[in-house]
Amino acid sequence: MSISVSSLTKIYGTQKAVDNISFDLKKGEIVGFLGPNGAGKSTTMKMITGYLSASDGTAMVCGIDVSKDPMSVHKKIGYLPEANPLYYDMYVREYLEFTAGIHKLGKETAKRIEEMISITGLTKEAHKKIGALSKGYKQRVGIAQAMIHNPEVLILDEPTSGLDPNQIVEIRELISTLGKEKTVLLSTHIMQEVQAMCNRVIIISSGKLVADDNIESLKQVNTQGAIIVSFEKEPAKELFKQLKNLSKYERSEDGKWKLLTEKPDELRKEIMQWAVQHDLSISSIQKETQSLEDVFRTLTK
To answer: Is 300 part of any domain?
Structure first.
């Protein structure tokens, strides 16, 4: 596993900022790490990177225990904190040379700097001081420094925070490209971003892990008992009373019928037979799903 977190806990006084959470990330995954403000996302990320020590539990990066060998972990991991720490008086290339020196890249330094400038789209701005860049380009510099040593794992905390729509799309495309070769743990509050980049989501609330699944499965949370059906020809409302496994039904404004049941699989089969008996053509039939935002609100209330 690229990242393996087991019973990870962080306690401040009497408060458990992170409460006994566990999850694994494989190479090539881009995983959205979601939660309300104060849920423990940034604290978890800092423990995985070794920036904070855990009160209990373990965090492993590429098979290395963060608490036992943090320096080896730093070689494997690239980290962009929420507050992007840049030296505004440095020029872009100068700053990347500085970070390359920290990672002791030696003869590879010049090559890696030019690669990062190209990959992150900084070519036209590379001659400027960082303080003169827009926020979007500052974020690109932050991602470039996180990648300068070619790490296997990237941890990005709110990488598009405060960016305009065009900048968000550009950074999103960059992260999606990076995720083809690396493992990415991405914290964000923008659900469209998660749906565009991630195939899996981890949600924490009040320090506890409340969900870890692919997006489509999460959208069916609390909707297992609802089936949405549409017909080519409108059925008589009283006909629905013949369905034995139906507990409640209602028609929406778009002409579809929402059927509630405790036995969705049985009701689905029953509807097919019922439709044939009454010469009704079904246009579509599916389980109800929620938006990712609805799921997030349900799990983190």
So the answer is: no
